[in-house]
Amino acid sequence: MIRAERIYKSFGEHNVLKDISLTFDTGKNNLIIGRSGAGKTVLLKILVGLMRPDEGTIWYDDVEFSRLNKRQLKTVRMQVGMLFQGSALFDSMTVEENVRFPLDMFTAQTKKEKDMRVNWCLERVNLAGNNIKFPSEISGGMQKRVGIARAIVLNPKYLFCDEPNSGLDPKTSILIDELINSITEENHITTIINTHDMNSVMEIGENIALLHQGRVAWIGNKESVLHSDNPEMEDFVFASPFLQRLRDQAAGNS
């Protein structure tokens, strides 16, 4: 479990996050949603330790993460997996080398142990046999799956995903959602996903927090999304004209 308690963050006179308190449950898909500029990315960076809050605390289970020094942070970060928005693969490395990179950085495993772990992770994301390909030789969806394999190679307790479906077609996005969901359940990981994809919200949103102008505007799950009377949530859900027409049609038929 990860907890954010009364988080504030400003850049100059611009208050980006204002009194954010949230709990992200273990074994669930915890989604942070909201429009561009709502503060999602800044909050994710603070949660993963890439940025420090001006005020407030971050807890990883019973560890006060936001107060750790560099040495202590390194220990905790070995338990963290990160899937970046653009996959962030190294172009000059093969698929296998990209996935192995965290093992080289943080472990003293033998080559045989690393090879076994890399191959297991590639099999888990349905990429067995693609070891020696380079990122430029595989599709965007495959690159995202390589990113997931790299994110789980250290067997993390905490998994952060920044816009995992960005740039993907709807069918591939569904596959990525299903993969993240199954990995979360199987390994009982605390997974936090920053997204604006309504398909992800409705498919895997077990614990959802909507940010609006730097504040928590709504908390719920996928079952309660469409029945919310929260104005910020309604505005986010029915932002597209297509969804607005569906809502109007449903209201007209009731």
What do these coordinates show?
A hairpin with a 2-residue loop joins β9 (207-212) and β10. The chain has helices at residues 40-48, 70-77, 95-106, 111-124, 140-152, 170-187, 198-204, 222-225, 231-237, 241-253; strands at 2-11, 14-24, 29-33, 55-60, 63-64, 80-83, 158-162, 190-194, 207-212, 215-220. It is 41% helix and 24% strand. The radius of gyration is 19 Å and the shape is globular. It starts with a strand and ends with a helix. Strands 6-7-8-3-9-10 form a six-stranded mixed beta sheet. A four-stranded antiparallel beta sheet has the order 2-1-4-5, covered by helices on one side.
Distance between the termini: 41 Å
Major sheet attributes: 6 strands, mixed
Poorly predicted tracts of residues? none
Percent of residues in helices: 40-55%
Mean pLDDT, rounded to whole units? 90
Radius of gyration: 19 Å
Sheet with the most strands: spatial strand order: 6-7-8-3-9-10
Task: Give the overall shape.
Answer: globular
Alpha plus pi helix count: 10
DSSP E strands, number: 10
Strand content: 15-25%
Query: How would you classify the helix and strand content by structural class?
Result: alpha/beta
The ordered H/E elements are EEEHEEHEHHHEHEHEEHHH
Characteristic key phrases:
254 residues, alpha/beta, 10 strands, globular, 24% strand, single chain
Short description:
The chain is an alpha/beta fold and about 250 residues long. Helix content is about 40%, strand content about 25%.
